[in-house]
Amino acid sequence: xxxxxxxxxxxxxxxxxxxxxxxxxxxxxxxxxxxxxxxxxxxxxxxxxxxxxxxxxxxxxxxxxxxxxxxxxxxxxxxxxxxxxxxxxxxxxxxxxxxxxxxxxxxxxxxxxxxxxxxxxxxxxxxxxxxxxxxxxxxxxxxxxxxxxxxxxxxxxxxxxxxxxxxxxxxxxxxxxxxxxxxxxxxxxxxx
Length: 192
Known about the structure:
Blueprint: E1 7-14, H1 21-33, E2 39-45, H2 49-53, E3 57-59, H3 65-70, E4 81-82, H4 93-105, E5 108-115, H5 117-132, E6 138-143, H6 159-173, H7 187-190
Parallel strand pairs: 1-2, 1-4, 1-5, 5-6
Antiparallel strand pairs: 2-3
Helix pairs in contact: 4-5
């Protein structure tokens, strides 16, 4: 039996960027490169899903192995992110049909969506529309959220970095000198 030709993949970042979103991108891109017999190229959407809707795609195969590896320690969203929530399929089917149209044009058979709860919902909807339109696509949600709101997960990447930022910021408030040269203390500590 002859194996099918490799398909391309589409990767997009969504929501608020955290220290882990680019590390997740690095993981997706490096892993895809290990399977050239399944995934030919990975296109990243500039500004998330909006990049697919506007056909503004970044061909990550043009990036060096070192550049992709560097994402692991790069802050912010390397490809741009968006807080753009697609309406329900019944409310705006045209958007989903546009996604499938772009995916067809670029021979995309894999969709990796990196984000929170809304992103996971979008990945599910794209999978459903692909089936309805007889366009086979494998949709994978890559979890990342600062508010840890993903269903059926205990702790999600992104939450830890947000929690650490809050903890470090809160802790440092007790040691920052005030303009008078004294350390600020809460009123509860002064009363002791």
